[in-house]
Amino acid sequence: MSASPRACQTGQHAHTPHGEAQRRALVYAAYRLIAERGFEHLRTRDVAGRAGVNIATLHYYFKTKEDLIRGVVDYLVQHFATAHSATPQGAPQTPLDELREEFADADYQARATPEPYIVLFELFLRSLRDAAVRDILRGMNAHWQRHITRYLTDGARQGQFRADLDIAAAAPALIALIKGSVLQVMLAPETFPVEGIHREIERWLTGHTRAAES
Question: Whole-model pTM?
Answer without folding.
Answer: 0.82
